[in-house]
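Work Package 4 report. The design task specified in the project plan requires that, given a folded chain encoded as structure tokens, an amino acid be chosen for each position. We show below one input record used in the internal validation round.
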């Protein structure tokens, strides 16, 4: 985080909310890389190896998963920077920076620190996560795949059903914010200067009540008593109710209340650029995974999981009526990057285990074992990133909360799809290929 702040200042990068999203994803991936390394070291120690051998093997075996996960997301960042516009570029810049820094810290700084501990005499296994080797219980994830697929389909269908219901009721398919559909800007001059915290806690709830808009945007004019409130388009009655509330409750100067309509800041061209950028980024990630894993089934399973995560988070936006603005694009991009990284860790373990697969072991047993052995990593990294975003939700202002809430849903969904969906999809496609080959013989 310190390195990212230094680089932001060095390259004079403007920090936007989507940019903060890119930093969050970078930090999450940095935690992820370290957890992969430490989990590998602990596995080696459990096999009875020495601390030095376990450290060497842990870093070596974790290398491919870390590189593949980070390079895949880095490809997406470059495509978004190339084809995206506005806030998408801001997200791509900080994401790329975060990925490069996180790889450097995980593979260089962490290695230096750990080996320094060993060099000064801290060589007891208990300091490096030593655990007694025991027969690990393998969870039968594939046996429950129909249940998992059913839950996913149900959640996605609910989203589309609510889209139809909202459209039929005239509320709009989604709760588009000012950036997408424009609104009303009202400048109010109060009898004293309010802090942003006071405005958020005292004035905004009253505005939400009289206007019926739960997504009020606030802009304070520093050094004055003037505050600009941006809301959905207000008719004459709501404008009068707004003015009355400001003058009677907060003693604003009625003569200095100015209202004007504002247009959308996110044009149809910008939306089209964002969609095209995401599609091209997804195709590039698919091609890279195909190239690295030498199996199109890995790539198609990973992309299917991305689509799954995006549709479920989209369903959450629709059902919960969360405001859809610039943060929506940032949230979706963050989920895509986070989910693909988690999936690649599991696929990397499956690829590794396929080379040492026993003849009498079924493919389903191998996949279940690989998912179970990476389950600790999935839980730890998801939990650490979730806690970080939860703090943003609790302590942030309304615009931050609009971003943090769906992102928390996306983190949970990404962990769920990586563990419960991707391995099962790959297994189904792999099994069908085996059956076709047997039928051909």
């Amino acid at each position: 985080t310190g390195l990212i702040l230094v680089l932001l200042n060095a390259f004079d990068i403007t920090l936007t909310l989507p940019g903060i999203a890119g930093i969050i994803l970078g930090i999450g991936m940095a935690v992820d890389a370290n957890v992969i390394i430490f989990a590998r070291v602990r596995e080696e120690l459990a096999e009875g190896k020495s601390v030095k051998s376990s450290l060497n093997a842990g870093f070596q075996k974790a290398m491919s998963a870390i590189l593949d996960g980070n390079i895949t997301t880095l490809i997406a960042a470059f495509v978004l920077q190339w084809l995206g516009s506005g806030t998408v570029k801001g997200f791509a810049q900080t994401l790329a920076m975060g990925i490069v820094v996180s790889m450097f810290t995980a593979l260089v700084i962490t290695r230096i620190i750990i080996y320094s501990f060993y060099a000064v005499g801290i060589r007891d296994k208990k300091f490096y996560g030593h655990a007694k080797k025991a027969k690990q219980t393998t969870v039968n994830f594939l046996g429950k795949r129909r249940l998992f697929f059913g839950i996913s389909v149900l959640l996605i269908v609910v989203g589309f059903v609510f889209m139809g219901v909202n459209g039929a009721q005239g509320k709009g398919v989604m709760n588009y914010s000012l950036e997408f559909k424009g609104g009303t800007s009202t400048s109010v001059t109060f009898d004293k200067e309010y802090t942003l915290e006071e405005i958020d806690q005292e004035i905004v709830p009253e505005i939400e009540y009289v206007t019926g808009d739960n997504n009020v945007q606030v802009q304070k004019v520093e050094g004055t008593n003037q505050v600009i409130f941006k809301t959905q388009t207000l008719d004459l009655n709501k404008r009068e109710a707004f003015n009355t509330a400001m003058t009677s409750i907060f003693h604003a100067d009625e003569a200095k209340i100015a209202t004007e309509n504002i247009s959308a800041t996110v044009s149809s061209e910008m939306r089209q650029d964002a969609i095209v950028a995401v599609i091209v980024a997804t195709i590039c990630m698919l091609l890279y995974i195909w190239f690295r894993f030498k199996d199109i089934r890995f790539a198609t399973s990973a992309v299917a999981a991305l689509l799954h995560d995006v549709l479920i988070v989209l369903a959450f936006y629709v059902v919960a009526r969360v405001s859809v603005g610039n943060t929506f694009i940032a949230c979706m991009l963050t989920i895509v990057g986070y989910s693909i990284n988690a999936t690649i860790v599991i696929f990397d373990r499956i690829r590794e285990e396929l080379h040492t697969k026993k003849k009498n072991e079924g493919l389903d047993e191998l996949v279940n074992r690989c998912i179970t052995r990476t389950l600790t990593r999935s839980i730890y990294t998801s939990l650490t990133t979730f806690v970080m975003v939860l703090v943003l939700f609790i302590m942030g202002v309304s615009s931050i909360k609009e971003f943090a809430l769906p992102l928390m849903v996306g983190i949970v969904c990404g962990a769920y799809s990586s563990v419960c969906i991707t391995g099962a999809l790959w297994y189904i496609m792999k099994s069908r290929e085996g059956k076709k080959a047997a039928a051909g013989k």
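Residues 398-440 form the longest helix (43 residues). Validation will be extended to a larger panel in the next phase.
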